[in-house]
Specification:
single chain, mainly beta, 6-stranded antiparallel beta sheet, 41% strand
Amino acid sequence: MHNSGSESHAPDRLLVEAIARRRLVTAQYNGATLELAPHRLFTRHGELHLSAFNPNKNWRSEEERKLGHFKLAGLGDIAISEQDFEPLPDFGPELPREGDVEIFSVQPLAA
C-alpha cells in the first residue's frame, strides 16, 4: 500500500504525533471544521477519546478556557497543521473521569 503522508495514518497515530509535536490539528466534527490543540488521547469504555482545546471558541475569559472531550469515532478528516500550540497552563495528569485510561498526553517542555 502506498503511503502518501501523515493523512494516510490511522487517526490515533496522527493524534499521538500531534500531541508529541504540540501541533494543532484540523478535524470535521458535527459538520463543522474545528482547529484543535490536542492534549490527551485516552480510552473510555474501550473507545478512543481526545481531550483538546478549541482556540477559536469564543471564551468569556482566560479562566473559562478548558479542554473539550471528543469521541474519536466522531472526528473525521483529521490532519496535522504546521502551527504549534502551548498546552493550557492548568493541564494536569488527572483524567476527565474515573475509569478513563490514558494512551498519551502532552508533556512539559524540558527547561
